[in-house]
């Protein structure tokens, strides 16, 4: 009976983690550039009472296993990097990526992080930064007398200065992509860091090498689908409930044995 309780308890723990993950997806339904994640599960060890292919006492061969499993466990959180819907903002510093690329962000310690959140701002010096003040790489500085900022689908940044009719080029934005984006580590603030599983970033100009193009004046919304997450939550809740009933049933069976005379 204790084995059944432990097995069911492992299912409850797994479904609790599943609900926690769904709750995080729903909490970030309005987070710019957020990518939903899902949990993957595996069965665990089995107790084999009789193995397939073994020989019985009378010389017959056993055709099937007799084995009881010990439950389940969560083994991976897989992030879905499909693009979210785009929303028109009209802000020249709002950028979205139509493709697989990431913006490169420099933290104060000089390390590189990566993001799909293109809601950028300007500092007092005209440098392009994230909402937390982290610099966009390559660093672009907008002149104080700029009256219009244009960022092309290829990442070229041009401005129109006061008293001039010809736009002036300030530089070129670059994007990064990864052979295995599922291996990136989410560290909060809409940022990701590389890992040995993600591989090194492949950096290049937008609209080339599968990096995707940049759309100025748009933001990418979260790719969380509320209806799908609610259905997943109901399924997880029912699975949790069924496992709790298994524990109750095992306890009732143990109680019957204890009352035998």
Description:
The protein is an alpha+beta fold and 261 residues long. The protein has helices at residues 2-27, 226-258, and strands spanning 37-43, 46-50, 66-69, 72-79, 86-88, 95-98, 102-106, 112-115, 121-122, 128-129, 135-137, 146-151, 156-161, 168-172, 175-177, 185-188, 191-193, 202-204, 213-216, 218-220. The strands form eight sheets. Strands 7, 8, 11, 15 and 18 form a five-stranded antiparallel sheet that branches. It has a three-stranded antiparallel sheet with strand order 12-13-14, with no helix packed on it. Strands 1-4 form a two-stranded antiparallel ribbon. α1 (2-27) runs antiparallel to α2 (226-258). The longest helix has 33 residues, at 226-258. The model has no long low-confidence stretch (mean pLDDT 92).
* Oligomer class: single chain
- Name the helix and strand elements from N-terminus to C-terminus, one letter apiece: HEEEEEEEEEEEEEEEEEEEEH
Largest sheet: 5 strands, antiparallel
Query: In angstroms, what separates the terminal alpha carbons?
Result: 19 Å
Number-wise, the strands total: 20
Q: Please mark out the parts with pLDDT under 50 across 5 or more consecutive residues, or reply none.
A: none
Mean pLDDT across all amino acids: 92
Number of helices: 2
Brief sketch in words of this structure:
The chain is α+β, with helices and mostly antiparallel strands and 261 residues long.
SSE layout:
Blueprint: H1 2-27, E1 37-43, E2 46-50, E3 66-69, E4 72-79, E5 86-88, E6 95-98, E7 102-106, E8 112-115, E9 121-122, E10 128-129, E11 135-137, E12 146-151, E13 156-161, E14 168-172, E15 175-177, E16 185-188, E17 191-193, E18 202-204, E19 213-216, E20 218-220, H2 226-258
Antiparallel strand pairs: 1-4, 2-3, 5-20, 6-19, 7-8, 7-11, 7-15, 9-10, 12-13, 13-14, 15-18, 16-17
Helix pairs in contact: 1-2
């Amino acid at each position: 009976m204790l084995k059944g309780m432990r097995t069911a308890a492992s299912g409850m723990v797994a479904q609790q983690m599943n609900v926690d993950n769904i709750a995080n997806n729903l909490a970030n339904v309005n987070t710019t550039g957020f990518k939903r994640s899902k949990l993957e599960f595996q069965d665990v060890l089995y107790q084999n009472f009789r193995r397939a292919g073994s020989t019985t006492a009378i010389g017959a061969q056993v055709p099937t296993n007799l084995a009881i499993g010990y439950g389940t466990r969560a083994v991976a959180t897989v992030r879905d990097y499909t693009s979210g819907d785009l929303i028109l903002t009209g802000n020249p510093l709002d950028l979205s990526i139509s493709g697989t690329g990431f913006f490169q962000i420099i933290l104060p310690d000089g390390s590189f992080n990566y993001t799909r959140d293109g809601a950028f701002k300007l500092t007092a010096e005209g440098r392009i930064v994230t909402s937390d003040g982290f610099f966009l790489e390559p660093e672009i500085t907008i002149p104080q007398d700029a009256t219009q900022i244009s960022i092309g689908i290829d990442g070229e940044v041009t401005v129109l200065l006061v008293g001039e009719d010809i736009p002036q080029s300030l530089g070129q934005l670059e994007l990064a992509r990864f052979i295995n984006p599922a291996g990136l580590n989410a560290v909060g603030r809409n940022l990701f860091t590389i890992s040995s599983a993600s591989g090194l970033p492949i950096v290049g100009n937008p609209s080339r090498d599968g990096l995707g193009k940049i759309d100025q004046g748009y933001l990418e919304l979260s790719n969380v689908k509320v209806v799908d997450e609610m259905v997943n939550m109901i399924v997880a809740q029912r699975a949790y409930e069924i496992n709790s009933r298994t524990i109750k049933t095992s306890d009732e069976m143990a109680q019957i044995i204890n009352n035998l005379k």
